Known about the structure:
The protein is of the alpha/beta class and 305 residues long. It folds into two domains: 8-129 and 288-300, Rossmann fold, CATH 3.40.50.1370; 133-284, Aspartate/ornithine carbamoyltransferase (Rossmann fold). The protein is built from ten helices and nine strands. The chain has a five-stranded parallel β-sheet, covered by helices on one side. Strand 8 (216-219), helix 8 and strand 9 (256-259) form a beta-alpha-beta unit. The radius of gyration is 19 Å and the shape is globular. Phosphoric acid mono(formamide)ester (CP) binds at residues 52-55, 125, 133, 260-262. Residues 52-55, 125, 133, 260-262 line the site of phosphoric acid mono(formamide)ester (CP).
Amino acid sequence: MKRDFLKIYDFKKQEVYKIFDTTKYFKSLRKEKKITDNLKNLSIGLLFSKPSTRTRISFEVAIYELGGNPVYLPFQTTQISRGESIKDTAKVISRYLDGIIIRTYSQGELEEFAKYSEIPVINALTDLYHPVQILCDLFTIYEKKGSLNNLKITYIGDGNNVCNSLIEGCDLLGIEIRISCPEEYMPDRKVIENIKNKNLLKISSNPEEFIEDADVIYTDTWVSMGDEKETERRIKIFKKYQVNKDLLKNAKKDFLFMHCLPAHRGQEVTDEIIDGPNSIVFDQAENRLHCQKSILAFLFSSISY
Ligand code: CP
């Protein structure tokens, strides 16, 4: 039976650790400039209705280096943009491709696509979730810290798709997660209601509250794709959530600073933090490639790796 990756909970905890182990393997292979044949003779589509630098490039390269054929499908060049139904498109695409990676607005539409698709579907970002990002980020923390036990992660800023998936990722793996967001930009209510480890989640609107003992401090843009009309208003509301030297004056010496990128320097983070010694944002971006290879290999698990 096909496996989709539409949200973090589509994987079990032990599967995530298996994916992390394989990520280390793919990362070491790439240092030796070796490619594999995990996706040999398989064509994987990338249906994107929003811009992307990291997700698109890292997935295309990952598919190529696993021996597969990436097929980039900008949404506006397909008949979906002229009204062809999700159902018909999913059924047709299943006859040509072996898997599909989708970046779109609505999680509901993505789930509808997956329902009618006969091939694995991967969520490359919706308005609700960014699970691939967070799985790769949790790998980066695991790699840097050696373990995910007894860590405290603090997320500051907009309670957006990245934040929602981070909450679910921490819930799945049993990591303490603290969220500082303005009252009107809190994470999705259902995401909070559905987590199992309620004792591991703390939420505040005070940006200073969860800094002191944080092992990881994570932020993201204040204006996600689709929120542009609210830009001016958001910049005013989020101003005190900027990750800067002053906010982090009591942070641990060895905290890790993370940002999924693209960053809006001078808004959610200052240059001195994103370019500073605690920042791991470019290692984080690189690991998208290695970890996504592992996700692809896992979902096409009839292929040994
Ligand atoms: N972080 C992330 O998803 O980056 P892109 O929008 O460039 O893919």
